Amino acid sequence: MKRNLFIALTLCMSLAGMAQTQVTEFNPGIAANGVNYMLPMTALKIDASAIKVVYTPGEFAKYAERYLHISGVVPEPSTTWKMTNLSVHQEGVPDTSKIYTVKLKDKTVAPMVQLTPSGILVAVNNHVDLPEQELPKTRTTNHRMDARQYLTEEILSATSTSKMAELTAQEILDIRESKNAIKRGQVEAMPQDGASLKIVLDELNRQEEALTQLFTGYADTTYTAKSYAVMPTKDLDEQVLFRFSRKLGFVDADDLAGDPYYLSVKDKHTVVLPDAKEAAKRKIEGLVYNMPSMANVTISTMQGTVYEQELPFAQFGTIDMLSPTLFNKGATTKLTLHPATGGLQHLEQ
């Protein structure tokens, strides 16, 4: 399974002499004797989850307080949504303006590289376990019980709903009395052992819960998760990410039926960028990697901030190069780059 998550290209040559690893910008018109790799841009992935509660009132809802002294029972059906979690992580997306070729030369130890399936460089002379991304799943838990199977002949033959409710309430009270009598050992035919006692009590509990639902109703819950991807190429100021409604759940960013969740991204300019003249003079003289700049990421609602964190972004920074001598003959250099930013994560000599 993990073979589908990465492409490990092991291209080790003879170590008999002395050479340096050569890296060049990718030239699509020339077949290069080497391995092409890309550096990433940094995308934001926002995972939001919510629970939908669908309430169905009981058949005897309006008699709950009269016969069972249960107050506050709602006689009307309803559907409500509640946001339960919001998480943010980053993913690397290939930057087609940053494609390079690690050329193969005799006696160099460099070209043992690991790429992601999309061609992003993540390791040299090393191995990285790339995490599996699970797709959001929707699941529903049903709480309705079949109360009809526990209704006695007397209840079913009642001529009015009020009478049925009264008899059902009495049946519930009888079940509670039976449970208390068993727990006190006050019944003639007591279960012979603990396992038998548990079976009897569990069945009485099921009967009580099912019949009580005829008064209190039940609520089915559905867990729903949504993922939103954003590729900021400049500062974002309260861009509407999505909207959320307590009645409808997740709705589109332009659907005014929901309350907005705003995304802001502010580059902190933690990396000094070269001017145009310096960038034009720069020569590729070693393995190219990203130097990401930190940015402040905020997600907010009308009520306030729900997420705030400083995160690195490749597209707000610049590139740098590692000396090609790091991969000379006899070198044991191991390099790991961050899959989402292309920045240095680990360098070992």
Would you mind describing this structure in some detail?
By secondary structure, the chain is an alpha+beta fold. The chain has a domain at 52-82 and 141-221. The protein starts with 6 loop residues before the first strand and ends with a strand. Helix content is 18%, strand content 42%. The protein has helices at residues 64-68, 153-156, 161-184, 194-216, 276-281, and strands spanning 7-10, 22-25, 34-56, 78-103, 112-115, 121-124, 139-141, 218-230, 236-245, 249-251, 259-267, 287-301, 304-322, 334-337, 344-348. The longest helix is centred in the middle third of the chain and has 24 residues, at 161-184. The strands form three sheets. It has a five-stranded antiparallel sheet, with no helix packed on it. Strands 2-4-3-8-7 form a five-stranded antiparallel sheet, with no helix packed on it. A five-stranded antiparallel sheet has the order 10-9-11-12-13, with no helix packed on it. It contains five helices and 15 strands. β14 and β15 form a beta hairpin. α3 (161-184) packs antiparallel against α4.
